[in-house]
Amino acid sequence: MGVILTDAEIKTLIEEPKPLPSGYLSKLVLKNKSGHRERELELVGSQGSTFRIILRQSLHNVLDFSAILTFVHPTSQTIRLRRYNGKSHEHTNKLERQTFYDFHIHLATGVISYQVSVKTPMLKSRIAMQACKMQSTV
Amino acid sequence: MNYEEIVKQFKSKVCEQLRVVEEGENRFRVFTPFIFEDGDHLGIVLKKDRSGSWALSDEGNIYMRLTYDLDEKDLRSGTRQKVISNALSTFSVEDRDGELVAPIKENRYGDALYDFVQASLRIADVTYLNRERVKSTFMEDFRSFLEANINPKRLHFDWSDRQHDPEGLYSVDCKIDTSSEAPFFVYALPSDDKVKDSTIALLQFEKWGIPHRGVGVFESQEDINRKSLARFSDVCDKQFSNLATNKDRLARYLGSESLVQ
Fold first, then answer.
1. B-proximal residues of A, 16-55, CB under 8 Å
2. pTM, two decimal places
3. Range of B190's domain?
4. Which of A47, A71, A103, B187 has the least C-beta neighbours within 10 A?
5. A15 to chain B, closest Cα gap in Å
Protein backbone atom coordinates (compact mmCIF):
# COMPACT_ATOMS: atom_id res chain seq x y z
CA MET A 1 0.00 0.00 0.00
CA GLY A 2 1.25 3.51 -0.77
CA VAL A 3 2.51 5.87 1.89
CA ILE A 4 -0.11 8.22 3.29
CA LEU A 5 0.87 11.49 4.92
CA THR A 6 -1.36 13.59 7.12
CA ASP A 7 -1.57 17.36 6.77
CA ALA A 8 0.51 17.66 9.95
CA GLU A 9 3.23 15.41 8.54
CA ILE A 10 3.27 17.35 5.28
CA LYS A 11 3.59 20.60 7.21
CA THR A 12 6.46 19.20 9.26
CA LEU A 13 8.28 18.10 6.13
CA ILE A 14 7.77 21.45 4.43
CA GLU A 15 9.06 23.30 7.47
CA GLU A 16 12.09 21.05 7.99
CA PRO A 17 15.19 23.08 7.13
CA LYS A 18 16.87 21.74 4.02
CA PRO A 19 20.46 22.94 3.91
CA LEU A 20 21.78 23.04 0.39
CA PRO A 21 25.09 21.24 -0.22
CA SER A 22 28.19 23.16 -1.20
CA GLY A 23 28.37 23.80 -4.88
CA TYR A 24 24.62 23.28 -5.22
CA LEU A 25 24.30 25.81 -8.02
CA SER A 26 26.50 23.80 -10.32
CA LYS A 27 24.55 20.68 -9.41
CA LEU A 28 21.34 22.36 -10.51
CA VAL A 29 22.46 23.58 -13.92
CA LEU A 30 19.77 22.34 -16.25
CA LYS A 31 20.74 19.80 -18.88
CA ASN A 32 19.08 19.53 -22.28
CA LYS A 33 16.84 16.56 -22.98
CA SER A 34 14.25 16.03 -25.72
CA GLY A 35 12.15 19.16 -25.82
CA HIS A 36 13.06 20.31 -22.31
CA ARG A 37 15.84 20.89 -19.82
CA GLU A 38 16.04 19.14 -16.49
CA ARG A 39 18.05 18.49 -13.34
CA GLU A 40 17.54 16.86 -9.95
CA LEU A 41 19.24 17.21 -6.61
CA GLU A 42 18.84 15.03 -3.57
CA LEU A 43 19.38 16.55 -0.17
CA VAL A 44 18.94 15.67 3.48
CA GLY A 45 16.93 17.84 5.80
CA SER A 46 18.07 18.84 9.26
CA GLN A 47 15.86 16.11 10.79
CA GLY A 48 17.25 13.43 8.51
CA SER A 49 14.43 13.38 5.95
CA THR A 50 15.47 12.85 2.36
CA PHE A 51 14.17 15.26 -0.26
CA ARG A 52 14.63 15.61 -3.98
CA ILE A 53 14.45 18.85 -5.93
CA ILE A 54 13.27 18.27 -9.49
CA LEU A 55 13.58 21.01 -12.09
CA ARG A 56 12.11 21.00 -15.57
CA GLN A 57 11.73 23.70 -18.21
CA SER A 58 10.49 23.53 -21.80
CA LEU A 59 13.01 24.44 -24.49
CA HIS A 60 10.17 26.05 -26.48
CA ASN A 61 8.50 28.13 -23.78
CA VAL A 62 10.41 29.40 -20.74
CA LEU A 63 7.14 29.93 -18.88
CA ASP A 64 6.44 26.20 -19.09
CA PHE A 65 8.42 25.01 -16.08
CA SER A 66 8.14 22.89 -12.96
CA ALA A 67 10.11 23.11 -9.76
CA ILE A 68 9.18 20.22 -7.50
CA LEU A 69 9.97 19.46 -3.88
CA THR A 70 9.66 15.71 -3.34
CA PHE A 71 9.88 13.75 -0.12
CA VAL A 72 11.66 10.39 -0.47
CA HIS A 73 10.10 8.06 2.07
CA PRO A 74 12.35 5.37 3.64
CA THR A 75 10.45 2.81 1.53
CA SER A 76 11.77 4.71 -1.49
CA GLN A 77 8.30 5.90 -2.46
CA THR A 78 8.37 9.54 -3.51
CA ILE A 79 5.69 12.05 -2.60
CA ARG A 80 5.47 15.47 -4.18
CA LEU A 81 5.04 18.07 -1.47
CA ARG A 82 5.06 21.15 -3.64
CA ARG A 83 5.15 21.74 -7.37
CA TYR A 84 5.66 25.23 -8.70
CA ASN A 85 4.36 25.63 -12.25
CA GLY A 86 4.70 28.42 -14.75
CA LYS A 87 1.94 30.11 -16.69
CA SER A 88 1.66 27.72 -19.61
CA HIS A 89 -1.62 25.93 -19.01
CA GLU A 90 -4.89 26.22 -17.16
CA HIS A 91 -5.47 24.44 -13.91
CA THR A 92 -8.70 23.20 -12.33
CA ASN A 93 -9.13 22.33 -8.68
CA LYS A 94 -11.81 19.70 -9.16
CA LEU A 95 -13.26 19.64 -5.66
CA GLU A 96 -13.45 23.42 -5.47
CA ARG A 97 -14.50 23.71 -9.15
CA GLN A 98 -12.06 26.52 -9.66
CA THR A 99 -10.21 27.05 -12.96
CA PHE A 100 -7.50 29.58 -13.66
CA TYR A 101 -4.67 30.33 -16.06
CA ASP A 102 -1.69 31.66 -14.14
CA PHE A 103 1.50 30.71 -12.30
CA HIS A 104 0.45 28.26 -9.63
CA ILE A 105 1.67 25.97 -6.90
CA HIS A 106 0.48 22.41 -6.38
CA LEU A 107 0.25 21.72 -2.66
CA ALA A 108 0.05 18.22 -1.26
CA THR A 109 -2.83 17.67 1.16
CA GLY A 110 -3.66 14.87 3.56
CA VAL A 111 -6.44 13.72 1.24
CA ILE A 112 -5.07 10.78 -0.76
CA SER A 113 -4.11 11.63 -4.35
CA TYR A 114 -5.46 15.16 -4.19
CA GLN A 115 -3.43 18.24 -4.62
CA VAL A 116 -4.87 21.69 -4.49
CA SER A 117 -3.27 24.47 -6.46
CA VAL A 118 -3.18 28.10 -5.56
CA LYS A 119 -3.01 30.84 -8.08
CA THR A 120 -0.24 33.28 -7.43
CA PRO A 121 -1.00 36.35 -9.50
CA MET A 122 0.45 38.80 -6.96
CA LEU A 123 3.58 36.76 -6.47
CA LYS A 124 3.98 35.53 -10.01
CA SER A 125 7.25 37.21 -10.73
CA ARG A 126 8.70 36.14 -7.39
CA ILE A 127 7.53 32.56 -7.83
CA ALA A 128 9.02 32.45 -11.29
CA MET A 129 12.27 33.77 -9.91
CA GLN A 130 12.29 31.29 -7.05
CA ALA A 131 11.46 28.38 -9.31
CA CYS A 132 14.23 29.21 -11.71
CA LYS A 133 16.90 30.39 -9.32
CA MET A 134 16.25 28.04 -6.37
CA GLN A 135 17.26 30.50 -3.67
CA SER A 136 18.98 29.05 -0.59
CA THR A 137 15.98 29.77 1.62
CA VAL A 138 14.10 26.78 0.16
CA MET B 1 -35.26 17.15 -19.97
CA ASN B 2 -35.83 16.38 -23.66
CA TYR B 3 -33.42 15.17 -26.31
CA GLU B 4 -32.79 18.60 -27.89
CA GLU B 5 -32.02 20.12 -24.53
CA ILE B 6 -29.48 17.41 -23.74
CA VAL B 7 -27.73 17.84 -27.08
CA LYS B 8 -27.77 21.62 -26.67
CA GLN B 9 -26.24 21.29 -23.21
CA PHE B 10 -23.55 18.90 -24.39
CA LYS B 11 -22.58 21.17 -27.28
CA SER B 12 -22.64 24.41 -25.31
CA LYS B 13 -20.62 22.93 -22.46
CA VAL B 14 -17.87 21.70 -24.78
CA CYS B 15 -17.86 24.94 -26.82
CA GLU B 16 -17.83 27.19 -23.76
CA GLN B 17 -14.69 25.57 -22.46
CA LEU B 18 -12.93 25.71 -25.81
CA ARG B 19 -11.20 29.05 -26.35
CA VAL B 20 -8.44 30.31 -28.58
CA VAL B 21 -6.48 33.33 -27.37
CA GLU B 22 -3.80 35.16 -29.29
CA GLU B 23 -0.50 35.03 -27.46
CA GLY B 24 1.94 36.48 -29.95
CA GLU B 25 2.84 36.68 -33.60
CA ASN B 26 1.44 33.61 -35.36
CA ARG B 27 0.82 32.08 -31.97
CA PHE B 28 -2.40 31.21 -30.18
CA ARG B 29 -3.05 29.35 -26.97
CA VAL B 30 -5.82 26.77 -27.21
CA PHE B 31 -7.75 26.23 -23.98
CA THR B 32 -9.70 22.97 -23.69
CA PRO B 33 -11.54 21.21 -20.88
CA PHE B 34 -9.22 18.20 -20.99
CA ILE B 35 -7.20 17.76 -17.81
CA PHE B 36 -4.65 15.47 -16.26
CA GLU B 37 -5.11 13.70 -12.95
CA ASP B 38 -3.41 16.53 -11.07
CA GLY B 39 -5.84 19.13 -12.43
CA ASP B 40 -3.50 20.67 -14.99
CA HIS B 41 -5.09 21.15 -18.39
CA LEU B 42 -3.44 20.10 -21.62
CA GLY B 43 -1.12 22.88 -22.75
CA ILE B 44 -1.78 23.38 -26.48
CA VAL B 45 -0.43 26.05 -28.75
CA LEU B 46 -1.47 26.76 -32.34
CA LYS B 47 1.50 28.26 -34.12
CA LYS B 48 3.40 28.35 -37.36
CA ASP B 49 6.19 25.84 -37.46
CA ARG B 50 9.55 26.26 -39.13
CA SER B 51 8.11 25.50 -42.54
CA GLY B 52 5.56 28.29 -42.11
CA SER B 53 2.63 25.89 -41.78
CA TRP B 54 0.12 25.96 -38.95
CA ALA B 55 0.41 23.21 -36.39
CA LEU B 56 -0.74 22.31 -32.89
CA SER B 57 2.02 21.72 -30.37
CA ASP B 58 2.53 20.85 -26.72
CA GLU B 59 5.98 22.52 -26.76
CA GLY B 60 7.52 19.56 -24.98
CA ASN B 61 5.13 19.59 -22.04
CA ILE B 62 3.87 15.99 -22.19
CA TYR B 63 7.28 14.33 -22.15
CA MET B 64 8.46 16.81 -19.55
CA ARG B 65 5.56 15.78 -17.28
CA LEU B 66 6.34 12.10 -17.83
CA THR B 67 9.93 12.59 -16.70
CA TYR B 68 8.75 13.61 -13.23
CA ASP B 69 8.36 9.88 -12.56
CA LEU B 70 10.28 8.19 -15.35
CA ASP B 71 13.72 8.42 -16.85
CA GLU B 72 13.59 9.67 -20.42
CA LYS B 73 15.23 6.47 -21.67
CA ASP B 74 12.34 4.48 -20.22
CA LEU B 75 10.07 6.23 -22.73
CA ARG B 76 12.19 5.05 -25.63
CA SER B 77 11.94 1.32 -25.01
CA GLY B 78 9.57 -1.47 -24.10
CA THR B 79 5.84 -1.15 -23.60
CA ARG B 80 5.90 2.59 -23.04
CA GLN B 81 7.60 3.17 -26.37
CA LYS B 82 5.02 0.99 -28.10
CA VAL B 83 2.12 2.86 -26.52
CA ILE B 84 3.61 6.19 -27.51
CA SER B 85 4.39 5.11 -31.09
CA ASN B 86 0.93 3.70 -31.47
CA ALA B 87 -0.71 6.89 -30.23
CA LEU B 88 1.41 9.03 -32.54
CA SER B 89 0.72 6.96 -35.64
CA THR B 90 -2.98 6.46 -34.91
CA PHE B 91 -3.62 10.18 -34.61
CA SER B 92 -1.00 11.47 -37.06
CA VAL B 93 0.94 13.37 -34.43
CA GLU B 94 4.67 13.82 -34.82
CA ASP B 95 7.37 13.64 -32.17
CA ARG B 96 9.79 16.39 -33.16
CA ASP B 97 12.62 15.87 -30.74
CA GLY B 98 10.37 15.72 -27.70
CA GLU B 99 7.75 18.18 -28.97
CA LEU B 100 4.40 16.69 -29.96
CA VAL B 101 3.18 18.35 -33.15
CA ALA B 102 0.01 17.89 -35.17
CA PRO B 103 0.37 19.66 -38.53
CA ILE B 104 -2.86 21.15 -39.83
CA LYS B 105 -3.68 19.47 -43.11
CA GLU B 106 -6.12 20.81 -45.65
CA ASN B 107 -7.34 23.46 -43.17
CA ARG B 108 -8.91 20.78 -40.96
CA TYR B 109 -8.23 22.54 -37.68
CA GLY B 110 -11.00 20.80 -35.75
CA ASP B 111 -9.86 17.32 -36.77
CA ALA B 112 -6.28 18.17 -35.87
CA LEU B 113 -7.30 19.38 -32.41
CA TYR B 114 -9.40 16.29 -31.78
CA ASP B 115 -6.53 13.99 -32.83
CA PHE B 116 -3.95 15.97 -30.89
CA VAL B 117 -5.95 15.80 -27.68
CA GLN B 118 -6.47 12.07 -27.97
CA ALA B 119 -2.81 11.36 -28.72
CA SER B 120 -1.67 13.60 -25.87
CA LEU B 121 -3.91 11.96 -23.28
CA ARG B 122 -2.91 8.47 -24.37
CA ILE B 123 0.78 9.31 -24.18
CA ALA B 124 0.36 10.99 -20.80
CA ASP B 125 -1.20 7.77 -19.51
CA VAL B 126 2.03 5.80 -19.92
CA THR B 127 2.87 7.05 -16.47
CA TYR B 128 0.46 4.40 -15.17
CA LEU B 129 2.75 1.76 -16.62
CA ASN B 130 5.43 2.92 -14.24
CA ARG B 131 6.65 0.60 -11.57
CA GLU B 132 7.41 2.43 -8.40
CA ARG B 133 10.61 4.27 -8.98
CA VAL B 134 12.67 2.63 -6.27
CA LYS B 135 16.12 3.99 -5.92
CA SER B 136 18.36 0.96 -5.78
CA THR B 137 21.35 1.15 -3.48
CA PHE B 138 23.04 -1.81 -5.17
CA MET B 139 25.79 0.17 -6.91
CA GLU B 140 26.61 2.06 -3.74
CA ASP B 141 26.57 -1.20 -1.74
CA PHE B 142 28.88 -2.84 -4.30
CA ARG B 143 31.40 -0.06 -4.07
CA SER B 144 31.23 0.15 -0.27
CA PHE B 145 31.76 -3.63 -0.02
CA LEU B 146 34.92 -3.53 -2.12
CA GLU B 147 36.30 -0.52 -0.29
CA ALA B 148 35.71 -2.24 3.04
CA ASN B 149 37.21 -5.63 2.07
CA ILE B 150 39.99 -4.94 -0.43
CA ASN B 151 43.23 -2.97 -0.11
CA PRO B 152 42.26 0.40 -1.61
CA LYS B 153 45.60 0.64 -3.42
CA ARG B 154 44.53 -2.30 -5.57
CA LEU B 155 41.11 -0.92 -6.47
CA HIS B 156 40.53 0.94 -9.72
CA PHE B 157 36.89 1.94 -10.16
CA ASP B 158 35.51 2.66 -13.63
CA TRP B 159 38.73 1.43 -15.19
CA SER B 160 39.44 1.22 -18.91
CA ASP B 161 42.54 0.35 -20.92
CA ARG B 162 43.97 3.69 -22.02
CA GLN B 163 46.23 2.14 -24.60
CA HIS B 164 43.62 0.16 -26.51
CA ASP B 165 40.64 2.29 -25.60
CA PRO B 166 41.51 5.97 -25.19
CA GLU B 167 37.83 6.97 -25.27
CA GLY B 168 36.91 4.59 -22.47
CA LEU B 169 34.20 2.78 -24.40
CA TYR B 170 34.86 -0.54 -22.69
CA SER B 171 35.04 -0.05 -18.96
CA VAL B 172 35.20 -2.20 -15.87
CA ASP B 173 33.28 -1.29 -12.72
CA CYS B 174 36.30 -2.26 -10.64
CA LYS B 175 39.68 -3.62 -11.67
CA ILE B 176 41.44 -5.31 -8.76
CA ASP B 177 45.20 -5.78 -9.06
CA THR B 178 46.50 -9.20 -8.09
CA SER B 179 49.85 -10.93 -7.71
CA SER B 180 49.31 -12.70 -11.01
CA GLU B 181 49.25 -11.14 -14.46
CA ALA B 182 45.50 -11.42 -14.59
CA PRO B 183 43.67 -8.85 -12.48
CA PHE B 184 40.04 -9.26 -11.48
CA PHE B 185 37.62 -7.35 -13.70
CA VAL B 186 34.59 -7.05 -11.42
CA TYR B 187 31.22 -6.00 -12.77
CA ALA B 188 28.16 -4.96 -10.74
CA LEU B 189 25.10 -6.19 -12.65
CA PRO B 190 21.71 -4.68 -11.76
CA SER B 191 20.04 -5.05 -15.16
CA ASP B 192 19.89 -6.79 -18.54
CA ASP B 193 21.44 -3.80 -20.24
CA LYS B 194 24.40 -3.80 -17.88
CA VAL B 195 24.92 -7.54 -18.41
CA LYS B 196 24.98 -7.01 -22.18
CA ASP B 197 27.42 -4.12 -21.96
CA SER B 198 29.65 -6.13 -19.64
CA THR B 199 29.60 -9.10 -22.02
CA ILE B 200 30.68 -6.88 -24.89
CA ALA B 201 33.47 -5.37 -22.81
CA LEU B 202 34.82 -8.76 -21.68
CA LEU B 203 34.73 -10.00 -25.26
CA GLN B 204 36.68 -6.94 -26.35
CA PHE B 205 39.32 -7.51 -23.66
CA GLU B 206 39.65 -11.10 -24.91
CA LYS B 207 40.07 -9.85 -28.45
CA TRP B 208 42.77 -7.41 -27.41
CA GLY B 209 44.55 -10.17 -25.50
CA ILE B 210 44.34 -8.36 -22.16
CA PRO B 211 44.79 -10.87 -19.32
CA HIS B 212 41.98 -10.76 -16.80
CA ARG B 213 39.57 -12.79 -14.70
CA GLY B 214 35.99 -11.68 -15.16
CA VAL B 215 33.78 -11.56 -12.06
CA GLY B 216 30.08 -10.77 -12.21
CA VAL B 217 28.15 -9.72 -9.10
CA PHE B 218 24.42 -9.55 -9.80
CA GLU B 219 21.89 -7.51 -7.92
CA SER B 220 19.52 -10.41 -8.59
CA GLN B 221 20.66 -12.97 -11.13
CA GLU B 222 17.21 -14.52 -11.47
CA ASP B 223 15.85 -11.24 -12.86
CA ILE B 224 18.25 -11.34 -15.81
CA ASN B 225 17.13 -12.45 -19.25
CA ARG B 226 18.25 -16.05 -19.93
CA LYS B 227 19.97 -15.36 -23.22
CA SER B 228 21.86 -12.40 -21.82
CA LEU B 229 22.93 -14.53 -18.89
CA ALA B 230 24.05 -17.37 -21.15
CA ARG B 231 26.22 -15.06 -23.26
CA PHE B 232 27.71 -13.48 -20.17
CA SER B 233 28.50 -16.91 -18.73
CA ASP B 234 30.66 -17.69 -21.76
CA VAL B 235 33.02 -14.81 -21.11
CA CYS B 236 32.94 -14.48 -17.33
CA ASP B 237 35.07 -16.63 -15.03
CA LYS B 238 33.04 -16.37 -11.83
CA GLN B 239 29.53 -15.19 -11.00
CA PHE B 240 27.75 -14.38 -7.76
CA SER B 241 23.95 -14.42 -7.92
CA ASN B 242 23.60 -11.46 -5.57
CA LEU B 243 25.72 -9.38 -3.24
CA ALA B 244 23.68 -9.52 -0.07
CA THR B 245 24.03 -13.24 0.67
CA ASN B 246 27.45 -13.75 -0.92
CA LYS B 247 29.58 -11.20 0.86
CA ASP B 248 31.70 -13.78 2.66
CA ARG B 249 32.18 -15.90 -0.45
CA LEU B 250 33.00 -12.88 -2.58
CA ALA B 251 35.45 -11.55 -0.02
CA ARG B 252 37.17 -14.98 0.13
CA TYR B 253 37.29 -15.27 -3.67
CA LEU B 254 38.71 -11.82 -4.22
CA GLY B 255 40.91 -12.32 -1.17
CA SER B 256 42.44 -15.50 -2.60
CA GLU B 257 45.25 -13.39 -4.02
CA SER B 258 48.10 -12.37 -1.70
CA LEU B 259 47.78 -8.68 -2.47
CA VAL B 260 44.22 -8.48 -1.23
CA GLN B 261 43.39 -7.55 2.40
1. 33-36, 38, 54
2. 0.61
3. 138-254
4. A47
5. 23
